[in-house]
Automatic annotation (TrEMBL):
The keyword Protein transport applies. It comes from Ferrimonas pelagia. This is Flagellar biosynthetic protein FlhB. Pfam families: Bac_export_2. Belongs to the type III secretion exporter family. Keywords: Bacterial flagellum protein export, Protein transport, Transport. Required for formation of the rod structure in the basal body of the flagellar apparatus. Together with FliI and FliH, may constitute the export apparatus of flagellin. InterPro entries: T3SS_substrate_exporter (IPR006135), T3SS_substrate_exporter_C (IPR029025).
Amino acid sequence: MDDKPKKAVAVRYDGQDAPRITASGEGHVAEQIQTLAQDAGVLVHHDPQLAELLAKLELGEQIPPQLYLIIAELIAFAYLIEGRFPEQWHNIHQRLNTKA
């Protein structure tokens, strides 16, 4: 069993700049972050290694370019399960179908 305290980090993306750290904590605080996110309908992704990396950042700090891909994939997945697409993707499915 892993004796490390559980960590949680909240990331917010405004659609313009790189995602930023909006909450971070471990132990009881991590549990509160996760509960608040779930209650608000926010995607909760369980990845201890990613949480460990993100927990090293300060509140309000943008994620580093090295993490853009994984965070972008998580944001895209969250959009997909909500049935949403970024504004610039307006009617992307129609554009893709016409190119086939």
